[in-house]
Amino acid sequence: xxxxxxxxxxxxxxxxxxxxxxxxxxxxxxxxxxxxxxxxxxxxxxxxxxxxxxxxxxxxxxxxxxxxxxxxxxxxxxxxxxxxxxxxxxxxxxxxxxxxxxxxxxxxxxxxxxxxxxxxxxxxxxxxxxxxxxxxxxxxxxxxxxxxxxxxxxxxxxxxxxxxxxxxxxxxxxxxxxxxxxxxxxxxxxxxxxxxxxxxxxxxxxxxxx
Length: 210
Description:
This protein is an alpha+beta fold. Helices cover about 30% and strands about 20% of the residues.
């Protein structure tokens, strides 16, 4: 945490100078707010998804439909987070002039962009664009289903069932990412994701259900 314009701010999780639209593998982790168990529970080493967990899983599978340059690899939905490997491919650098590049770079830096001219917010091919879409789409679908649950259950006059289906679902701000650098690291990450439920109680994101 650093002091900027007399205010403390959280440091960016993004790697300085890295273009997050560059081709390569990215290991992504997205957590729920306060690591609450919205997505289900691990039972005997297996992840049992709730309805919200199924939403999170199904929408992740839709990523290539909306971002053809985003290829899916190993993925798992856990009680309070998701892990996924994404491969970004097919991105071509623009042919903008040096002057245009410098102008855009200066504008990004003035906005406080840690990645300068590679500011992921400004790049339609970036990892951040994909994750922002995913988080928003999951939140929207859960809210939509919650509204349907409320209407149907109210019509049945079942007081117990009219409680919120979504339990006020929210994501934790931002997300974690790691740039995969070689085949060994790729293998290890795939293995970690595949065995995440089996090793749940030893996981850094482990938290007992409320």
